[in-house]
Design brief:
Shape: elongated
Keywords: Signal
Distance between the termini: 84 Å
Strand content: 25-35%
Number of helices: 17
InterPro entries: Peptidase_M1_dom, Peptidase_M4/M1_CTD_sf
CATH architecture of one domain: Sandwich
Structural class: alpha+beta
Largest sheet: 7 strands, mixed
Helix content: 10-25%
CATH topology of one domain: Immunoglobulin-like
Radius of gyration: 36 Å
Oligomer: single chain
Strand order of the largest sheet: 4-7-2-1-13-17-15
GO molecular function: metallopeptidase activity; zinc ion binding
Protein name: M1 family peptidase
Organism: Chryseobacterium phosphatilyticum
């Protein structure tokens, strides 16, 4: 679903609910927290989900096939449906009941989920908004009306409706490997989507008196039963979207004869519902490289004037999809073209449906944007597997398998603003992209909105960039998330929060995860490692149900990068990035340093190193008659120090010895010339925001040249609050810029710059000596001092 970008700075009421905890390992310290492994924060790997992030050898998921008949009554604005569902239990569990979703109940005043929001007295309102509060609340006539629920033979089944969920009690236990067939008949009044909101409904066009229907969440849909949650039967509140099972659909839609229908999957009877000219154009479009109008603008305008009372039935089939949506209206212009996916040679029919009000934009761009999207997403994830991809202009922004509802209309004179054009292209890319997340990589939207919206928004950004390098993407680049990250903590929550409990839904579920993935790709991992890992995740979890840990683990498993610090900070925390240049110390070498003379050092030989205190283990080991110490058995091991430790060797420990230190060497003329232009810069950094990130520096020298350096985030591992880096250059710096390309979402760039204004920075001196070229001492080698064996005259 596409949301408008909006950063709210209002005072809000705190929400409580499920949030994955960012457990700190060493909370009282300046280290040992941000870089610790996620450990117990992530679920324990098992036979269903492995520690690598891949599905395990015991992975399973259930399935549901649907055969649905629908009747659209345009006069009454009512939908009547009948479905036969075949549910397959592939789980190892025995099921006593099954759960279905009745999403249309959210539009009901008495059957909705009951998730009330706080309300305030507004200083201004309108006559349409001002209504007398009804207590008790009256039935507004919307929501699902169940006519009958039976098994395959027609025997009624016991069922219970709880708001937006329905439980069917099975006549006998459904065991592993068994299937259950049942039937549901229902109807509901279709709401005015523009006035009531929501994803499905109708839009009325007063100028010509026609409706445009977007039929979404329109049939009783199976809930997911999974290894990680059991039944996902959390109520549908209108925000947290969907968790659905895969299956095959056969759907027939009986609509007014002059309506054009688009839907999930392929239409199986175009020869019965299209006239000969339209069918001929469709056949041409099947091999066209440019969009061809199947239903022309003139035909759509003519159809608007004649409301047929005849009926036609359109039949669609879709295999291995998790949902089915459709659209119907006599207002539609319809165009299409063929696009081939290079990765799997899949020939896809890209199509668009739109009213005349959006003709000037959709005819130019929509179908081409559809084609561009599925090709680009296929490059970054998996090859698009379905035969169809469709965009419908419906003043909306919502996604379903192979079909999505978007926005973008021209002025009456056919002109449009650049914002409208870019918004239309962006929403088409976003909603078509949802075919991959979550329609194929089928995450639980009800629990984790970010797993589809965030990952999809990230891939949308990659696709927008490949559409037009000047495209004004509002989500993805690191700098675009800064205003959100600046907000007070009581207006923030971790990305790892339940969909219903997020105050700033758009930034949290869409922008922040998309930005985080882009930072991983561009700044932390690099494109090659990231792209391979991201594709691996998509391939592993295509047509399956991934959880957050599956993504986190796969990204590490396929890249060889330890990213726990990033998941911990960006996904489980709310700290922002604010790294500051605290101080820059400038120094030059003292080339005239007097060499240090050799010195005589007095010392005494070492005393026995055996511990002077008998600890509890030593005492108990001596008292244990079952222990015989190795050195007591092996006479060869009883050397000088065995006896020395036991007082059996006599050494004068008070006798003084002396050793001479080496003199340091002076710099020669060649050295002085080599180092005469060296300037040292110690840069002290402070982590003021709390979230660790790489330190990226741009050095500008007095001669105008530039150098760049990047230290990985691991520089903070031993001190998460303050670090320093020292550089030695053979020319003087004019300035230092931290994060010059705004890659890290730093919320305060005013402390990211240091300038040697006028070349007047205070400069200190450091001592410089010449090092003797003898290779130095080796570990465990001679120190040059007399040892106890030598002092005792033993060899």
């Amino acid at each position: 679903m596409k949301l408008k970008v909006c950063i709210l700075s209002l005072s809000v009421f705190a929400y409580t609910g499920f949030t994955a905890q960012n457990i700190q390992n060493n909370p009282g310290s300046n280290h040992g927290n941000k870089f610790e492994q996620l450990g117990s924060i992530l679920p324990t790997p098992n036979i269903y989900r492995t520690a690598s992030g891949a599905p395990g050898h015991g992975y399973w998921q259930n399935r549901a096939d649907y055969n649905i008949s629908a009747y659209l009554d345009e006069d009454k604005r009512n939908l009547k449906g009948s479905e036969t569902v075949t549910y397959y239990n592939n789980s190892p569990d025995e099921l006593d009941y099954i759960w279905l979703q009745l999403d249309e109940n959210e539009h009901s005043s008495i059957k909705n989920a009951g998730y009330d929001n706080s309300s305030i007295l507004r200083p201004t309102t309108t006559d349409q908004q001002l209504k007398v509060t009804e207590l008790p609340v009256k039935d507004n006539g919307y929501g699902v009306n169940l006519e009958k629920v039976t098994d395959a033979s027609g025997t009624p089944l016991k069922y219970t409706v709880n708001k937006t969920m329905m439980r069917i009690d099975l006549p006998k236990v459904l065991k592993k490997g068994e299937k259950f067939v049942f039937k549901v008949d229902w109807n509901y009044n279709i709401g005015n989507r523009i006035k009531m909101g929501g994803r499905g409904g109708y839009e009325n066009f007063p100028e010509d008196g026609n409706d445009l229907y977007t039929m979404a969440q329109w049939y009783p849909r199976m809930c997911v039963y999974s290894d990680f949650q059991g039944w996902q039967n959390h109520q549908f509140t209108g925000r947290g979207e969907f968790a659905l099972v895969f299956g095959d659909f056969k759907v027939s839609m009986n609509v007014p004869a002059d309506h054009i229908v688009g839907g999930t999957g392929e239409c199986k009877n175009y020869d019965q519902v299209l006239n000969s000219d339209q069918l001929s154009r469709y056949r041409k479009a099947e091999s066209a490289s440019e969009p061809i109008e199947i239903v022309t603008l003139d035909e759509a305008k003519k159809a608007e004037k004649n409301h047929s009372k005849q009926r036609k039935t359109w039949v669609f089939e879709a295999n291995n999809v998790r949902d089915f949506a459709w659209t119907s209206s006599r207002k539609f212009v319809w165009d299409g073209m063929r696009v081939t996916i290079p990765e799997n040679n899949n020939k896809v029919m890209a199509m668009s449906f739109y009213p005349k009000e959006s003709y000037g934009l959709y005819r130019k761009f929509s179908t081409k944007a559809v084609a561009h999207t599925i090709k680009t997403y296929s490059e970054f994830t998996i090859p698009y597997p379905y035969p169809v991809a469709q965009s419908v202009e419906a003043a909306s922004g919502m996604e379903y398998p192979m079909i999505c509802f978007n926005f973008g209309r021209t002025e009456k004179d056919g002109t449009y603003s650049e914002g409208t054009k870019n918004g239309m292209i962006g929403v088409i890319i976003h909603e078509v992209g949802h075919n991959f997340f979550p329609m194929i990589i089928n995450s639980d939207e009800r629990q984790w909105a970010w797993m589809d919206e965030g990952l999809n928004t990230f891939t949308e950004y990659l696709t927008e960039e490949k559409w037009d390098n000047k495209f004004p993407s509002k989500r993805g680049p690191a700098w675009t998330i800064v205003d959100y990250m600046k907000l007070p903590k009581d207006q923030l929550e971790p990305i790892m929060s339940n969909s219903e409990n997020i105050v700033q839904y758009g930034p949290n579920a869409y922008s922040k995860p998309a930005t985080g993935l882009n930072i991983l790709r561009e700044t932390i991992m690099g494109r090659e490692l990231f792209d391979k890992a991201f594709k691996t995740y998509a391939k592993r979890w295509a047509f399956k149900h991934p959880e957050p840990a599956d993504l986190f683990r796969t990204m590490e498993d396929a890249s060889g990068e330890d990213l726990d610090w990033f998941w911990r900070g960006w996904f489980y925390g709310t700290d922002p990035v604010d790294i500051a240049i605290d101080k820059v110390t400038v120094a030059t070498p003292n080339l005239e340093t007097n060499p240090k003379a050799a010195a005589e050092v007095k010392y005494q030989v070492e005393k026995p190193l055996a511990s002077s205190f008998d600890d509890i283990s030593k005492i108990r080991n001596r008292e244990d008659k079952n222990i015989t110490f190795y050195v007591d058995k092996d006479k060869e091991a009883q050397d000088f120090y065995y006896r020395y430790d036991r007082g059996q060797e006599k050494v004068d420990n008070n006798k003084e010895y002396s050793i001479k230190t080496e003199a340091s060497l002076p710099l020669d003329a060649k050295d002085k010339d080599k180092f005469k232009n060296i300037t040292a810069y110690q840069i002290d950094f402070a982590n003021k925001g709390g979230l660790v990130m790489p330190i990226i520096l741009e050095f500008t020298f007095e001669d105008g040249t530039k150098l760049y350096d990047k230290s990985s985030a691991q520089i903070w591992r031993l001190n998460e609050q303050k670090v320093s880096k020292t550089y030695y250059f053979d020319k003087k710096l004019a300035s230092i810029q931290l994060d010059p390309m705004k890659e890290t979402a730093d919320i305060d760039t005013s402390n990211n710059f240091w300038s040697n204004t006028g070349g007047n920075a205070e400069v200190s001196k450091f001592q410089l000596f010449k090092q003797k070229q003898d290779g130095g001492s080796v570990r465990g080698g001679s120190t040059g001092k007399v040892n106890p064996m030598q002092a005792a005259g033993k060899s």
